[in-house]
Fold these 3 entries.
Entry 1:
Amino acid sequence: MISTPPRRATGLALVLSAAALGLTGCGESGYETQPPHPTEPTISQASVQELCGILDGQKGTWKALGPPVARVAFTGAMKLWTVNDTVANAAISYNRRIVDTVTIRTCPQVRDATMKSLDVPDLKAALGGF
């Protein structure tokens, strides 16, 4: 028959081992010392094409409205687009310049016409509320 003290010693050794393993990678405070590095979400090509279509379809209306009102309308259009594409919403939250990056690659003339209608140096500047 095994006596009680060795069981306690074995249990204590297991608890201490688990605690030591649990603290591996942690600083003196007990928390991780390196924060996780988020990765930038990737907007699909289909979603970028949809964005270019939205911008192309609205540029005449925005031009007629004038820059101050057009910027508000642009923000509304962007909000509607990102409601339907949560990855695009996350990508814009991560990096507001992504709208410029994807439109430069996919529809540069539409982007230029949109910026002219909104009277902004880039689309990032027109993204109110993001």
Entry 2:
Amino acid sequence: MTPDADDRASHPTEDLTPGLSRSEPPAANTHARTRRHGPFTVVEVAGEIDLATAALVTEHLDEATARPESDVLVDLRRVDFFDCSGLRVLCRAETRARCRGGRLRVVSDAPRIRRLLRGAGLLDRFALLPGIPGEEGIPGEEGIPGEDG
């Protein structure tokens, strides 16, 4: 199954009544936690993301992309390993965000993440940011290239 085919697969969180979503993000787990930073929903991912752990990230990304016009940053700076299961989760979440008028970007300055995205043909799909805009040493949103930059 391709990442785009999986984007169309039914998932339990998509069966919720429209307009009803959690008031709080999912509980943090060993591989993902969600927080707000200004206008962004930041999903911080850590450790090894593979077939066994991708679902722990999925629950956070599903919630982050459930609202219209969400601006989601997936922070991969603490990831030790990331395989095609993680790419599938990212592709699905990016499609969900875009279909709802939002966007999803990846935060990573690791060359291995850039190589992985390039090798999978996904580098153009994900805007790579060096850090969370507005955090110490990172330019604000106006200094970060977006979809047009």
Entry 3:
Amino acid sequence: MRRHRTTTLVAGTALTAALALTGCGTLDTALGCVQAADAIATSVDRLSQAASNAGDPTQIEESLTAIDQELATLKEKTGNADLSKAVDGLSTGVEQVRTAVRDGDTTPDLKPVTDAAAEIGKVCTP
């Protein structure tokens, strides 16, 4: 639960900051980043829940796929080097979890995923 509150807080703070920006182009970009960060936070929360529910590989894979989709969307929209680096970090974490699950790990280490998702939240805060 603590991770969910943290990612929700990060996304909420980023949204508030984005709405305080001036200029439509900047606002649209920041808002898109915040929306993607929020979607990623939701997917990471689902991943955490799936991992804690006896490590259901199907639910874990669905959560990882949702994160991958949000990352693809976010990567298409960004020209920001810091955000690209954070997205790459989350992609790496997702692949590590996916590999662990495929290798039979029912309690994969989610820390790289949660840390990278938090970094995206930070980068998306204007």
